[in-house]
Amino acid sequence: MPERPDLDYVVPRLREALAGAEIAGARARKPVVLRCAIDEVRGRIEGVSRRSAAVVFHCGARDLVVIPMLAGRFEIDGRDSADLAVAFTLADGRVLQYRDDVQMGKLWWTAPGAAIPGLGEGGIDVLGAAFAVEALSRLARGRREQVKVFLMDKTALDGMGNAYADEVLWAAKLHPKRTTARLSPAEIAALHAAIVEVVGGATATIAARRPALPEKLRDFLHVRGKKGDPCDRCGQAIRTVGIHGHDAYYCPACQPDAEGRGFVDWRRASK
């Protein structure tokens, strides 16, 4: 899904471009993404904000809430493409497009602050002042899931999905299947430093490079999507392992299995 660094770039650009624009009409190419009647979506866009993994278009008494999930993205005045899901016609003649080639995203037209399935209370802001080593230690204490699952839990930490969880664990030199509660104080400190460095660094990199609105920058990552490539740190080939329906990219040399369980590369084993 678009992750914290992506949304921290996209949301301000949408806010700047759309403030005061009037949604005059809408059409759905892929109705499966809708959780509302498309004909009801009308109103003046008073602002745009991020709510955890969602983009919220504030239209007075109603909010248009979009959870982009894996492949959702936005574009203004682009051509109708094969991945167009919903197009919102603006009164000034422009068109706001929501594009989603796997149709996993969801759109709601709802009262401000209303409960949204899959969008609970957000976790601690990993780029905020409250995110200290002690705060991360408290969150990790007693959690028995694998550390990658913990990093992706939006109710615990506000900021990461698949890609940046992998990058954080590579930076911290932790295997993605380490049990969260078994991390030592030194490992918690390394994990905290890696979260701040990776998420903050990615946010700054994307902002500096200013990609087109629908473009998702990933070419600066170290492990995500690089199975078989040499690790940037040690040269060992990057591997993957399955975790709760997700895949995790990691370096077996830099991120050894400290719990000695001998995990198998599931993608390699399935061939």
In short:
With 271 residues, the chain is α+β, with helices and mostly antiparallel strands. The protein folds into 2 domains: 4-110, N-terminal domain of MutM-like DNA repair proteins; 124-269, Helicase, Ruva Protein, domain 3 (Orthogonal Bundle). It is built from 6 helices and 13 strands.
Verbal overview:
- This protein is of the alpha+beta class.
- It folds into two domains: 4-110, MutM-like, N-terminal (N-terminal domain of MutM-like DNA repair proteins, Alpha-Beta Barrel), CATH 3.20.190; 124-269, Helicase, Ruva Protein, domain 3.
- It is 25% helix and 23% strand.
- The chain contains six helices and 13 strands.
- It has helices at residues 4-18, 133-140, 147-151, 162-172, 185-209, 266-269; strands at 22-28, 43-44, 47-51, 54-59, 62-67, 73-76, 84-90, 95-99, 106-110, 124-125, 157-158, 239-243, 246-250.
- A five-stranded antiparallel beta sheet has the order 2-1-7-8-6, with no helix packed on it. The chain has a four-stranded antiparallel beta sheet with strand order 3-4-5-9, with helices on one face. Strands 10-11 form a two-stranded parallel sheet.
- Helix 1 runs parallel beside helix 5.
- The protein is elongated, with a radius of gyration of 20 Å.
- It starts with a helix and ends with a helix.
- Residues 262-271 have low confidence and may be disordered.
Strand order of the largest sheet: 2-1-7-8-6
Termini Cα gap:
27 Å
Shape by Cα distribution: elongated
What's the helical proportion of residues?
A: 25-40%
* CATH C-level label of the largest domain: Mainly Alpha
Compute the CA-based radius of gyration: 20 Å
* CATH topological fold name of the largest domain: Helicase, Ruva Protein, domain 3
The total count of helices amounts to 6
Low-confidence stretches: 262-271
Largest sheet: 5 strands, antiparallel
Report the sheet-strand fraction.
15-25%
* Number of domain modules: 2
H and E string: HEEEEEEEEEEHHEHHEEH
Q: What is the CATH architecture assignment of the largest domain?
A: Orthogonal Bundle
Q: Give the overall pLDDT as a whole number.
A: 92
The class by helix and strand makeup works out as alpha+beta
Count of distinct strands: 13
